[in-house]
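ok so for the tutorial part 2 we go from a plain amino acid sequence to predicted structure tokens. step 1 is just haveing the sequence, like this:
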Amino acid sequence: MVTKVIFLVVFFAIMVGVGVYSRKHATNVNDFVLGGRAVGPWLTAFAYGTSYFSAVVFVGYAGQFGFKYGISATWIGIGNALIGSLLAWVILGRRTRVMSKHLNAATMPDYFGKRYDSKALKIAASAISFVFLIPYTASVYNGLSRLFGMAFDIPYTACVIAMAALTGVYVILGGYMATAINDFIQGIIMLFGIVAVIAAVLNGQGGFYEAVMKLSEIESDVPLTMGQKGVFASFFGPDLPNLIGVVILTSLGTWGLPQMVQKFYAIKDEKSIKSGTIISTFFAIVVSGGCYFLGGFGRLFDSPAIYSESGSIIYDAIVPTMLSTLPDILVGIVVVLVLSASMSTLSSLVLTSSSTLTLDLLKDNVIKDMDEKKQLLVMRIMLVFFIVISVVIALDPPAFIAQLMGISWGALAGAFLAPFMYGLYWKKTTKAAVWASFACGVLITVSNLFLKFIASPINAGAITMVVGLIIVPIVSLLTPKMETKKVDEIFSCLDETVVVHRKSSIEE
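step 2 — the prediction. this is what the tokens look like for a chain of 508 residues:
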């Protein structure tokens, strides 16, 4: 217990210390929200990766999908690395940085408002962001609390409040730069921690080959596989169609999440994009691939601890059960690992929500004449407001982790992904198409919550994204186009000649 407590005290001290140090980088709105658009490759790549992977992945998703799909769940981690990281950086990174600076857009709703010349779109996007980032935040708290309960026997309420307070302190003090530096530190912990945990868990099962052999002897409970043995140790697992749905949601979904895309706004230069792409992809392979690979052995830890009184499986309890047998020093590492993943994601979520609410909804609409100083003050107040709301919801969460994240990602990515990406590349994307995507993303997700016409919220989220990618070009071809002169001016930034065209480099 002493070892675990020491780990935590040192960790918290470093996080707060970074917040204090970063105060000098948060003296104006651009610095507070985007780090002055001067963040290098390592900080940006780690900020992207640590915002991507939280306790939701390590505890919730790894437990649930590892139990359902066995070792084939590793494909989810591979998809996260190749689609959610590599392709996202290649397709979105440079153009997002160039166009967001040209439009002077600090947030995703701000981009929608200026790219499509519509204040109404900006306000709608801001409202959607604020509402649907809350369930994701609640899921982050929930996953962490289960691990703390296993390691320290700390009440859920105390864990949630402490984590929220500490995250709030360093974000309020240092803004984006504080989160980026802390994300880098937390990312290093995650990289080494996941490798150590996998090695320890497999060693406890007699090694890798012994663990795989044990897994191959378990009979499948998936009707499609007719009870055969070996499917949980197989290449594609027992349920490939649903596995693909999870890969799409957790990989392609990042392309439309405000807290992820806004990382590209802050990139410093061309070199940072190229280096950041490689670093971010490597990070995702190790962390996400490692989490799902570890979860794939969840069935070897089948015990009463993972079942409720009614006999249903508590997926969020699977990974904590796997880790409960580890030595104290490794449990301490795991706790700091998951705390790192969770606080980095939480800091990104609250900063995104507070900046969006302040700059896109309150400024000029509710509060007139907001100067720089007042904007910073309101953002910090909204940051506290968002944390309080998410804590209240987290104390009585409506569903288990994967469902909460599926709802959030489905609505946000379903609404934003298609109009954001098409808006970067296609001049003929129309306002009506953006409204159609917003409506589909929100309506499909919310209606499915009550009507359950798509059994899995995960698959529902994946479907909303695909629907958006189809609807936006169709509606754009059928509805009035934006003024040609206005669109040409927006895209002119890509053709500015520096050393090469702006579409190939962001060097000044």
